[in-house]
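Priority: medium. Attachment 1 of 2:
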């Protein structure tokens, strides 16, 4: 069966760059329709993996990112709002954080007025160059 699985921080490796996944706020995961799980240390690694693996979103049962404010919770990429700004320094310097709650997005925007907001479609475009 296809389902997400917990990321074992400090032990699991990124499916693209092979670095050990350490930072919970930026981790993400792909699960194929056949149940194979790919874990990533950075949202940019997930997007680059999609491009280099020559797969499409239809090949995956789950495409999830950790909620920056609640890193134990996965968010479907299509339901997440992605922020980029000075306060977000991810492991592979994709520097994107995913949020689900509007209130958390508003707090981040107040802390840094230069925060940029992206949809999943815009994230795909940003890293697919």
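Attachment 2 of 2:
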């Amino acid at each position: 069966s296809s389902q997400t699985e917990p990321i074992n921080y400090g032990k699991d490796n990124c499916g693209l760059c092979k670095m050990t996944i350490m930072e919970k706020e930026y981790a993400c995961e792909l699960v194929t329709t056949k149940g194979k799980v790919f874990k990533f240390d950075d949202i940019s690694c997930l997007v680059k993996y999609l491009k280099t693996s020559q797969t499409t979103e239809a090949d995956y049962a789950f495409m999830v990112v950790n909620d920056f404010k609640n890193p134990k919770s996965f968010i479907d990429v299509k339901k997440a709002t992605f922020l980029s700004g000075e306060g977000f320094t991810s492991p592979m310097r994709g520097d994107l954080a995913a949020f689900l709650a509007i209130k958390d997005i508003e707090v981040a925007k107040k802390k840094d007025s230069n925060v940029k907001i992206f949809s999943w479609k815009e994230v795909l475009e940003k890293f697919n160059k």
